[in-house]
Every structure is written in structure tokens, then in C-alpha cells.
Amino acid sequence: MIDLSSALHLAASEATLAVGALVLLMVGAFAGDKSTRLVSLLSVLLLIAGAVIAITGPWGQAFNGAYVADPLAIYGKSVIYLSAAVAIILGDGWMRRTRIAKTEYPILIVLAAVGMGMMASSGDLISMYVGIELHSLALYVLAAFHRDDAKASEAGLKYFVLGALSSGLLLYGASLIYGFAGSMRFQDIAAFAVDNPGPGLIFGLVFLICGLAFKVSAAPFHMWTPDVYEGAPTPVVALFATAPKMAAMVLIARALEGGFGEAHAQWSQVLVAISLVSFAVGAFGGLAQKDIQRLLAYSSIANIGYALLGLAAGTSAGLQAMLIFMTLYVIDQIGFFAILLSLSRSGRPIRRIQDLAGLKKDRPLTAVALTVLSLSVLGMPPMSGFWAKYYVFGAAANAGLWIVAAIGLVASVVAAFYYLRIIKLMWFDAPADEIATDKAPAEAQWIGWAAAAFSFPLVLGALAWLEPVTKAAAAGFGNG
């Protein structure tokens, strides 16, 4: 018999978010869209409460091992919930500037966070799939949230159709794994793989990795990413670039390290291949982009390749490197999108890279912040992005993947061109017209500067707490 009270105690963060989302849904239904600000504020507080509950909660397993609360899950949820809260804050200002105030926006993000939390704590194939679909269904709607925009509707449809394809791959791989291993639990699959690492199990594992690679937009399963990033509303893209990617990377680590640790030699080859393709697609694909959000899509593809390289090492140091990389990447992306949302030109949002020309003339401090963030993402020392890649490449080299790490370093040099182009436009090119803020300039700038200050990567003191925390999460993984 399952002790329901202790199980709910372990899953208290997800239960709190789920119940809170239902309550907020009722508030929105009865109070209407005029309660959007209240619902957004309560959603932010709800997500912060979920992070606190996850951090302070007990460790253990529930629902016959389907749910796992361990250091890896706790660390992942804290990053997921807090970045989702920032996406709500950014979206609140965007909704009022575009006069699309809907209570559904923050509620959908909270529901997506429930699924992402479930992904981080998945202990078997069923809970893994439930978490993926729960967060994906909310993200499909968010991608098309601006219904009057043809590009947003197209983005939502493409994401939904291709997401269904990836779910098919995921389910096919899960069914093969269950057929050969005779169990859904990662622990049982790991025990089976010790003595029976046959081709059937590996075949299912490859399909499973392909389905999961779609969720993190790793090449060659990235086909949805540029179009969705370009068409979806900017605050929704800020969400896509942060919380779901962290959740999916934690899930991949849990599935591969926890369920197929003995088959590391096989799945490491698959991850290396995906990393190499992601390096190439992300670095060279971004060179021809003219839309900022499409450029950030290709940047995310390349950066996910770096994160997967850390996992490919198959060591505790590699897992720690992935966590450090994803955390610093999330922080950089929050700052990047916060600044973009605080800018407009001639009354319209900044979308084209060319629109950043001459930014230093009217917004010099914003130009400085965006320059630092660009240098961080491309990996310029001593920015946080440099240390993120330092940990990943170091873990890969120590695991014997130094050639792949060298190729990743070359790809970083190629990708540096499009970030240096942004810096060159801001500081050396003349603007076509004046850069102005929207009619609510104080709020737009306050939100942008608050998030930018939070994410400012020059403060290297973040590594003082980040390294020991991620090290504890990597070392304690599987010991909950």
C-alpha cells in the first residue's frame, strides 16, 4: 500500500502549484481579465512558494518509485520555478503594453511549471511522459497566445504538430524499453541493463533520446525552434529559453544516468553525435539570421549541444558541469530578454537585429548591459558564460572527449561572430531612427533593468555558491 500522506508530502511543491493554479483559474473566471495583475502577482508568489517547499522538503521516493525527491530534483525545481516566475513578470508588462491582458497567461505558466517539476522528479517512464505532456500542452497554447498574430498562430501549430511527432518517438522508445526490461522504473531498468545490455534495449534508448532531444531543441531535432522563437510572443520565448530547457536537461540526466548508467558507452555516442550536429547548426545557422529571436533560437541550439556534452562525459563532474552551464545560461537569457522587452523603435518592439543600431546614443547603459550579456553568452572571460563552458569542456576532456571539446570550442568562435555583430551595431553604427520606449516607459525600463541587474553575469561571486550547490546535487543524485 502507498502511504498517500507521505507521498503528497514529498510532492508538496507540485501539489501546491496544481491546487493554486485551479484556485487562480476560478479567480480569473469570476473576476475577468481585469484581475490579470492580481493573478500574475499571486502566480509569482505561488512559484516562489513552490521553490521554497521543494528546497525545504524531505528526500525520498513516492508512488512506487515513480516520483523521486533528491538533490538533483530539488536543484532543478528551484531554477525552473524561479525562472518561470520571471517569465510571468516579463509577460505582465508585455500584456499591458500590447493590450492583451489575459489571466490565462500566468496560470498556463504555473501549470507548465507543474509538468516541469514532474519531469525533474520522474522516477519511471510513465511519470516522465506525464510530466512532458503536462508542460507541453501549456506551452502549445502559450506559443499561440497572441491569437491575432498570424506568426504566433503558425508557431503554436508547428510546435503542436512537431511535438506530437516527438511524443510518438518517445513512446515508441519507452515501449521497447518496457518490453525488454519488463519494468517502467529507472532503477529496475538499470538493474536489467547490467546483465542484458542487448540491442533491443539500446534501440529503445535511442528512440527515447531522440524524443527528449526534441524537447531541448537539440539538432537535428531542432526544426521547430527557429519558427517558434520568431513567431511566439517575446515573454513566451523567454520562458521557452529557460525553464523547459532546464527541466528537460535534468530529465535526460535522470533517465540516462539513473536508468542506463551501465550502457554509458552506447548512449554517450548518441549524445556526442547530437552535440556535434548542434554545434554546427547553432553556430553556422545563426550567421544568416536577421531576426533577433531567430538568432537566439540558433544560439540555444548550440548551447544545448554544450550542455549535452557535459552529460556525455558520464561522470559526476560532467553532471555538475551541465547544471552549472544550464543555470548560468538561464540567467543570461533572462537578462537578454528582459532588455529586449524594455526596448522599442518608433513605437514597435525591437525584432530585427538591425534595429539595435545606434543603441548607445539614446540608451548607453542598456547598450552596456546588452554588451556584457552578449559577451557572456559567447563565452568571453571573465563572464559567467566563460566559466559555464570551462566546466563543460573540462569535464568532457577529462572523460576522454577532448576532440569533441575542441570542436565545440571552434564552434564557439564561429558563433561569436553574431554576438560581436550585435555589439558592433550598438556601438559603431548610426541608427535609422530614434530608439524610444513605449507609452509606459517607467514600467518597461524598471522590469528590464531589474531582471538585467539580477542576471548581470559580471558578478563572478555567483560561482562561490553555484559550484558547491551543483556539486552536492551531482554527488547526491540517486541517493535520495
TrEMBL record:
EC number(s) per entry: 7.1.1.-
Membrane spanning stretches: 6-31, 38-60, 72-91, 103-120, 126-145, 157-181, 201-224, 236-256, 268-288, 295-313, 319-343, 364-387, 399-420, 446-466
Keyword tags: Cell membrane, Membrane, NAD, Oxidoreductase, Quinone, Translocase, Transmembrane, Transmembrane helix, Transport, Ubiquinone
Family according to the record: Belongs to the complex I subunit 2 family.
Subunit structure: NDH-1 is composed of 14 different subunits. Subunits NuoA, H, J, K, L, M, N constitute the membrane sector of the complex.
Task of the protein: NDH-1 shuttles electrons from NADH, via FMN and iron-sulfur (Fe-S) centers, to quinones in the respiratory chain. The immediate electron acceptor for the enzyme in this species is believed to be ubiquinone. Couples the redox reaction to proton translocation (for every two electrons transferred, four hydrogen ions are translocated across the cytoplasmic membrane), and thus conserves the redox energy in a proton gradient.
Name recorded for this polypeptide: NADH-quinone oxidoreductase subunit N
